């Protein structure tokens, strides 16, 4: 298809990976990102085999290597660990997804670093500060309307604009956002050698969750890059705009709505950083000294509140020139650390699908329909499992959740 063009609404993890994959395949695309730049939207991000393989497929070789070198050092165990508030290990669960790389496994990244890496080379593709507000699909082309009053036309429109996707609301208005009532605080503490020496060994495994007797939950995740980020950038992508990041440990508070701690927790969005820090001190009061001590080391400027929301899996829909990926269609709670990895999986799969259509190996709508069916089959079970009350049980996996319509 000559002059084939893909329009991507959203420059998050999934949208940028798709743009890199399309660029690598020689397919023209434009990304419309509402933020003025790549902003902070979280900290440590778990990576599994599915997400890592998608990056290898979509990124140029030097950027994939940059991702690997700036990802977290290989831990003793790449597992999800549960501890009690006294530091005793209660159980461990392998991360979901396909088998990991046995030599240099996919571990974790700093979220903003990954997005900055994926933006390298796309300077002429990403339009920052531009929001897609709607679209028109006449069956032959798709026109997107932008918040500055202008528009753009392409052959396919991809909704990569997150849980509040305006594209999904127009395409699939029946999909509802579920407000779980659960809330949390994202924070980090600088990880110095002296601090690391005081911590239980289990905190250096893949990811650690600690449950208090009153229902307060804190999760801990170490980020120690395999190579200093500035050094890796200088060697693999000289001049690239990727900020250095020192080692840290993510210390996130989880506030479960129906727990005793949750019922006594004030409005997180009305509190100051100091008050939020005090709330985390209250949550960890009486805990193992090292676990409570980490809360003391939190950088107040890193604290910000989040609300846990999700989407319900929707019934199959008729494929059109408008499709979706990532949180725009399967936003999920963080129970399995699968949200970003699923978005990356989608990006690689959609790149393959659109490339087959551009190359004339499949009709466009058939290729999109196949991508959407595969995405529903692979990701919707994880979405259902992540929303299940048993999601934090050590012996619970997505295969334990029944799929509606199947025996």
Give a quick rundown of the structure.
This protein has 407 residues and is α/β, with parallel strands linked by helices. Helix content is 32%, strand content 23%.
Describe the protein in words.
With 407 residues, the chain is α/β, with parallel strands linked by helices. The chain has one domain (5-400): FAD/NAD(P)-binding domain. Helix content is 32%, strand content 23%. The protein has helices at residues 13-25, 49-58, 61-70, 111-119, 166-171, 193-196, 229-236, 260-263, 273-283, 289-296, 327-330, 339-358, 364-386; strands at residues 5-9, 28-33, 44-46, 79-84, 89-94, 108-110, 126-128, 132-137, 142-146, 151-154, 156-159, 177-186, 188-190, 207-211, 217-223, 248-255, 304-311, 322-324. Strands 4, 5, 12, 13, 14, 15, 16 and 17 form an 8-stranded mixed β-sheet that branches. Strands 7-2-1-11-18 form a 5-stranded parallel β-sheet. Helix 1 runs parallel beside helix 4 and helix 3 runs antiparallel to helix 4 (111-119). The chain starts with a strand and ends in a 21-residue tail after the last helix. This is FAD-dependent monooxygenase.
